[in-house]
Design a protein that fits this description.
InterPro entries: Cyclic_nucleotide_synthase (IPR050401), Peripla_BP_I (IPR028082). Keywords: Lyase, Membrane, Nucleotide-binding, Transmembrane, Transmembrane helix. This protein has helices at residues 84-117, 131-147, 151-159, and strands spanning 6-9, 12-16, 22-24, 26-32, 37-45, 50-53. The chain is rod-shaped. With 170 residues, it is of the alpha+beta class. A three-stranded antiparallel β-sheet has the order 1-2-3, with no helix packed on it.
């Protein structure tokens, strides 16, 4: 094979120089979005050392990527931190949100207590009178001893007896 400067094999053309070094040819394929298949967009010839563009490249976003990242390869181009107003704005926003949530919580709690206090059916603890309850029990014991009531009459007495003093709203 060293006697031949060029031979054709199945994968493609391969060139060999006088030292026996091989020069390969390469094709660059790109996925064509219209055809949904790979097409040749560039061809490199190793023997002539040249690159030929066959068709246009299909780049994501319509343009080739940048040569270097925004912050550089070692992050040396990135800014150190955010400006002061970003921290001030985010801190004041969080503070205002906390104040608003606290205000809403206490305002709703106050409204609920005001609604409960305004209800006409609610009996305050101070309105209950426990002394009369004790007096009624003593009276019923005396009456039972003296008159010998039956269980039916005692149940009737309990159902119509006064048990507490309510306010005028009741």
């Amino acid at each position: 094979m060293s006697n031949h400067s060029r031979c054709i094999i199945i994968p493609g053309n391969v060139s060999i120089d006088e030292n026996g070094d091989r020069y390969s040819d390469y094709s660059l394929l790109d996925l064509d979005p219209q055809q949904d298949k790979f097409v040749e967009v560039a061809y490199y010839s190793g023997a002539s050392n040249e690159l030929k563009q066959v068709t246009e490249f299909h780049w994501v976003g319509g343009k080739p990527p940048k040569d270097s990242p925004i912050c550089g390869w070692d992050h040396s181009k990135c800014p150190e931190g955010y400006p002061f107003y970003v921290y001030l704005l985010s801190g004041s926003t969080i503070f205002i949100l906390i104040l608003m949530s606290g205000f809403i919580y206490f305002w709703r709690r106050y409204r609920l207590e005001a609604e409960l206090a305004a209800m006409s059916w609610k009996i305050r603890w101070e309105d209950l009178d426990g002394d009369e309850l004790k007096k009624d029990k003593k009276k019923s014991r005396r009456v039972r001893r003296l008159h010998g009531f039956s269980f039916e009459s005692e149940a009737l007495l309990r159902s119509y007896s006064r048990t507490s003093n309510g306010s005028e709203n009741v």
